[in-house]
Amino acid sequence: MEGLSKKYGLPTAIAMVVGIVIGSGVFFKADDVLVLTGGNVLLALVAWGLGAFSMIFGALCFAEFAGRIERSNGIVDYMEIAYGNRMGYLIGWFNCVLYSSALCAILAWVSSLYTMILLGSDNPSNSIATWVLAVVYMVLIYTMNYVAPILAGKFQVTTTVIKLIPLTLIAVLGVVSGMINGVLVENMSAAASGITKSGGTLASAVVATAFAYEGWILAITVNSEIKDSKKNLPKALVLGTLTVFVVYVIYFLGITSALPTDVILAQGDQAVSMVANNMFGTIGGSILTAFVVISCLGTLNGLALTNSRIPYSLAIRNQGPAPAFFSKVDPKTNMPRHSAIGAFVISMIYLALWYGSLNNVFGRYIGLDEIPIVMIYGFYILLYVWYIQNFKDLNVFNRYVKPICAILGALVIVVGGIQNPNVGIYMLISLVLILSGLFFYRKEPA
After folding, report:
1. Residues 84, 128: Cα–Cα separation, whole Å
2. CATH placement of domain 10-440
3. pLDDT of 254-291, one tens digit each?
4. Using an 8 Å Cβ cutoff, are 39 and 262 in contact?
5. In the structure, what pLDDT confidence band is assigned to residue 399 with cuts at 50, 70 and 90?
6. Residue ranges per domain, the chain?
7. CA 15, 21, 23, 26 torsion-angle sign
8. Torsion angle, CA of 65/71/73/76, rounded to 10 degrees?
9. Which of 344, 326, 345 is CA-nearest to residue 336?
10. What does each C-alpha distance from 78 to 3, 68, 185, 198, 237 come to in angstroms?
């Protein structure tokens, strides 16, 4: 069986971490975090910090895993070694049917949403045109990854650089203008005077930031295609997550410096467009919004790039449905073609579910953007515990402090997710889907 070649270097690996994480979440979750903290800017900053705490220490732990273990689809490798083949298979199945495909669907919609905002749509979040464009984006991005994986890697690096432009401009100019016109002082003063009134929602706010920070783990899905993976992947995880944290904090400060919190809450997902228009005028604002669209498409590309390999990573272990079919690699493109098609189909199913959720087809909102993330942090905790028990050659800081901090950060997100009033039904459905994978599990080794 032909395997996947080493085609991605360190810049692409870093771009995958930064590019997958920085995309849509920071733009359309900023107002959600403010809502959940009662409009308190200081508590919102604490929430962003706690979310980053979990991500950064988690990345430090996974960097240690990446430096020791390499096969195909990092987290599956690590869970296999830690808890056996069955558990490794189930985390891979979870990634395939619940996690990354759902994120792809949401990113296709968000990319379309900001495109419609750019075009001046009256109903940017839920018009027919928005959903049609979301389908078009999904088809184009998966096609690029299927036909030209090298081009997809270059697209990831390019969009990562481009997406930092609007974030940096809004961050710097927002803080400067906020200091001049007094909005920054006003928002901070209001937050300081009411800091004890909003604390009950902090955990939920951290969960909201978790979506914005999520995706860094997907970079390890292509560990077998990264050149000198045991050296470059740990570097990419650490440098990438630290970059994300710094960019997010200064961007949030920029937004909350440029607009009063009540205006941000009222504008919701369109707050970034208002800030851009205020700073640069209509034309400049449109250009900046175009950068946001590119940012979202870059994240969608990174998710599709990794998601396309997940069925393959199970198939080469002789696991999942039709392993001989999904393990085939196209000799011309060196892509697991059937795996990519399967991932695309599942992503499209989730896009339909997201449409139904936002249009009340199911009678309730379905938290595709949070529940899978809460669940994966539960899996992370299992790996962190095993890390402490087995990496006995490390010093005290690396063996105990790093994973304990990662566990604490993950617990904040899990506890916040449990506070969701619909968590019971979500978890039940998710567990049924995960356990359904056992129908395709084989005891014989790959």
Report:
1. 46
2. 1.20.1740.10
3. 888 877 777 777 777 677 777 777 777 777 778 777 88
4. yes
5. very high
6. 10-440
7. negative
8. -70
9. 326
10. 20, 10, 47, 39, 16
